[in-house]
What does this fold into?
Amino acid sequence: MELLNIFTKAAFIENLALSYFLGMCSYLAVSKTVKTAFGLGLAVIFVLGITMPINWVINTYLLSEGGIFATDLTFLRFILFIAVIASMVQLVEMVVEKFSPSLYNSLGIFLPLITVNCAILGGSLFMVSKEYNFSESVAFGLGGGFGWFLAIIAIAAIREKIKYSAVPPALRGLGMAFLLTGLMGLAFMSLMGIDPAAF
Amino acid sequence: MALVDFIKRFEPDKKNKYAHTTYDAFFTFLFTPNTVTKGGVHMRDGMDLKRTMIHVVLAMQLCYLFGTYNIGHQHFVAAGEHLGFLEGFHLKLAHGLIQLLPIFIVTHLVGLGIEFIFAAKKGHAVEEGFLVSGALIPLIMPPDIPLWILGVSVAFAVIIGKEAFGGTGMNIWNIALLARVFVFFAYPTTIAGDEVWVSGFESLAPGAAASYGWAHDIFNGLFGWMDLATFNSAATVVDGYSGATPLGLAYNGGWSAVTEQFSVAQMFWGTIPGSIGETSKPLVIIGALILLATGIASWRIMLSMLIGAVTMSIILNAWGATPFMEVPWMYQFYMGSFFFAMAFMATDPVTASSTNTGKWIYGFLIGFIGMIVRVLNPAYPEGWMLAILFLNTFAPLIDHYVLESNIKKRLARA
It folds into this structure.
């Protein structure tokens, strides 16, 4: 139950994309068609779901004072977290290239750029600051990834639809994507403030 | 014929864009254009955009009439005068008009003004889209809303929510709800709480004086001359009056707290505080039936939204962790604006899903999530506005996947 709470909270109530506005670069750039957005979203779920527990292990057993080195090494947190994320993204990239070359080509540079997707690092840092344990960090990672995935496929579907609208020329493309993100954030505020643990 | 010629004499030069679009908007309001189809398609439905819009506006008229009167009724209930529903009829109607007319005028001045400017800038005729949004917005606002907040929110909804997307029929989110949600999030301290649902007082603390303006003085003169009761400027809020809406009461105390203040009949007929047009259930349902009979609203969305809301409230009943969750599921529908949202908001054909399967999913999720927001979210008293905006976000995605699966099915069959 506790894990389910964390999952729903991360996915809907504290959505990484639409309430923290993390991971905006790939969110805005790869959301032109639902198909590529779907692929990138899945990659983000995977990377978040894997890196979160690994980073939890690193943070608890290597970096904190109670770890094997018995010294406070938290100043290394950023570097190690990024290293883990980068290696995971390499793995995803190889898998995607092997099994779906067309998706690999349409994602282009944005697949390796998941490394610097702030949603991933932000998720790991949230996990540290919220003091989750191992299973909670798995739930948080998967939930956060799922929320980001939902947000990016929703905006991609909207952008596919407004391709046929008479958007003013000055707003076409990125300008519209910014407006859409803002309005989607407004719509996602419906669930903000619910505390699943309170019931 | 003669009238057309007479009016055509005033047609401004087409080079003057602003004057000409404004003229054109009012001209087509009065007359059908005599341009005929030249190309391939020769069959046209008489049900054009303007007539669709007018049907929706007509369906709302009963809500308008009742809403106007109810503003006045709530005012006098708070003052402890003319407590019977039909007592002081002229006073209640006058007070209702004094509150509603400025809201209506500001909505249309701002909204239509922006619409006219954009039409001229873009060089097309003024579209009818704002007719419905402009009629809906006053109905979903609290009666005591400050007019400048109303103006800002209408401007936000029309510019960001509609014109940026390319005008009528292109928007992703419901315009009227965007205006309401903007008020809700941008000015929480001004319009949140129980104070805004009753108008005409300085505050709703017991003993607070009524604040009547020059419009009330004019009516007082008129009513005094006709030997009728007049507005009593010494009126104050009676002791023990809270102005709370049923939903506010239910959140804290469950169904018993609601029935202490309001009878079921009061909630059904709508003589309770709330947004202007949503309180009366039978009149909203009549509007819904008009929309269904004319085929403008989708029965799939209405039915599935009802099913979704019933499902969620039964689940909440079984859960039963707070007093609000224990409110029997059928009583949930006496409170709040479920029927108004179902009839006029969720069925908006532009922002809803457009495939039939998509409509079922869309409606069901609105009912389901709206009930979650209403009962579980302490921050918001009512859930439909936010649930509908939430599902508006996902409507294109639902359509996308419904289409994909249809394509797959057909490929498999071929």
Notes: Chain B has a mean pLDDT of 85. Residues 11-31+49-203+220-229 of chain B form one domain. Chain B touches chain A through 37 residues (CB under 8 Å).
